[in-house]
Amino acid sequence: MTRASYLEPAIPKLALLTGDANKARRLFTHLLSAAPRLDDVQRITGATGESNDLYVTARGKTMVIGGETAKAMAILGQLIAALLTGNEVILHCPRQAEMCAEAAKVLYEAGISDDVLSVANDSQTITLLHIDRLAQVAVAGSPAEIQEISQALANTDGILTQVIAVTDMEGLSDMLTPDYLYRFVTERVRTINTTAIGGNASLLELGT
Length: 208
What we know:
Blueprint: H1 2-7, H2 11-15, H3 21-34, E1 42-44, E2 50-58, E3 61-66, H4 72-84, E4 89-92, H5 97-109, E5 117-119, H6 125-128, E6 134-140, H7 143-154, E7 162-166, E8 185-193, H8 201-205
Parallel strand pairs: 3-4, 3-6, 4-5, 6-7
Antiparallel strand pairs: 1-2, 2-8
């Protein structure tokens, strides 16, 4: 996966921003190691004369928010996951503005474009939640903060915005589940009419 090759060199420097570089490096490396599964394409059964492939793709515009109780490791883990899955990311953690700026600098130096990653700590959270076509919000914080943001999103217009929550600041168990990265993507099906392109000549003969 190309995105992982951009992020991998940044992992040691990002880990240093967390206060526990060894633990952070293990977490971030775990996320990178899970990424190749996202490239898997599964053939599914369809109508006769069709091939159907199930695959995943980025959801789209993603906001990564660090709440009052959020630890840097959880915030950066969410950030790495959002970028690793191909999403455009807005990072918003006003209480850790310096850490956010340093993380963005590290990622820019690693080759991540500022069209893909931006830091928005000067704006109010509630204002940012009304950004047009915001696909998902990855929040690191307390259950109360998650609930508050979820309620605010429920009151916005437009597309349904998914909330990806991390509340375990010590064990980071939310990020260690097998489906964690899949929360940042959406499923797609590619259908090809194999009859039309000569994939099954015997089917063409049925009409003669």
